[in-house]
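Bit of a strange request maybe. I'm writing a small parser for structure token strings and I need a real example to test against, not something I typed by hand. Could someone generate the tokens for this chain?
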Amino acid sequence: MADCRIRYITKSAWGNTHEHITHVGDTNWKLTREQAIASIEAKQNTFYVLDSRTGKRANVGVVYPTNGKAYLRTHADGYWNDNLLALPGFPVSSLYP
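Reply from user aminoacidic:
Good idea to test on real output. This should exercise your parser:
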């Protein structure tokens, strides 16, 4: 199992009120939300982000809402938070635009 740091995301408008993550990755890899969820569920990989202010690690987990699709969210210090949504988009120079 690989321990993968997520540094970049791609967001898409979901309706008119919510954004959702469509892709996660780093400079040399990129997965769809569905691929990352499947990887977590199969225990193939773990994913995390580092808080840019504190340097603390926040693990990425899967949230299963009662209505709607499963989505990715970070979990740190016993709380679900929005560290993942705060990440920047993939850079233009990235291997994966």
